[in-house]
Automatic annotation (TrEMBL):
Keyword set includes Transmembrane helix: yes
InterPro entries (alphabetical): DoxD
Organism this protein belongs to: Croceitalea vernalis
Domain TQO small subunit DoxD residues, every copy: 83-160
Protein name: DoxX family protein
Domain of life: Bacteria
Residues passing through the membrane, by range: 21-39, 94-118, 130-155
Higher taxonomy: Bacteria, Pseudomonadati, Bacteroidota, Flavobacteriia, Flavobacteriales
Length: 165
């Protein structure tokens, strides 16, 4: 179990700060877009617009209507997928910004955006957003959070950081 946790948490690191910054900046940009732009309209968070009248962690009714039109099996379970979508956008976006469990958050974003790509005809934005998120998530899935994330601090404290991936 410790070996699996080590592989998930241990980020790719290098000595030069600008390469670690190159790893972290796309994650921060994607996290900000997911959590503070897209997430606030479909999921109730403190920064959601007041006109939506969403309580904390409430799924927006309009988003449930959109998801219920998705292809099966997603369309059969709209609330479960909408909850997964909201949590991935908000919690995953913030996790990517902070660099905590970045690989898990990236994997969830890849799943979410793949489903959005398949069901693109039911969503009112074009396919470039899901492709951007998938590309950055693949990048983040490989590299992890880099040195500028909480994953690095966890790995440094609990695991040996002498070997890089």
């Amino acid at each position: 179990m410790k070996s699996i946790l080590h592989k998930v948490i241990q980020p790719f690191t290098c000595d030069s700060w600008y390469l670690n910054l190159f790893i972290k900046v796309p994650q921060i940009v994607m996290g900000i877009i997911l959590a503070f732009h897209f997430g606030k309209y479909s999921f109730g968070v403190p920064w959601s617009p007041e006109r939506l009248n969403l309580t904390f962690f409430e799924v927006a009714p309009w988003f449930l209507d959109v998801v219920s039109n998705f292809y099966n099996p997603i369309g059969n379970f709209p609330y479960a997928f909408a909850l997964f979508s909201g949590l991935t956008k908000i919690v995953g976006g913030i996790a990517l910004i902070l660099g905590v469990f970045s690989r898990i958050a990236s994997f969830c974003v890849i799943i979410l955006m793949s489903i959005f790509l398949i069901n693109q005809e039911f969503i009112d934005f074009n396919f470039t957003f899901p492709l951007f998120f998938i590309a950055v998530s693949c990048f983040s899935l490989y590299f992890g959070s880099g040195k500028f994330g909480i994953d690095y601090l966890i790995a440094k404290k609990f695991f040996s950081t002498s070997s890089n991936r």
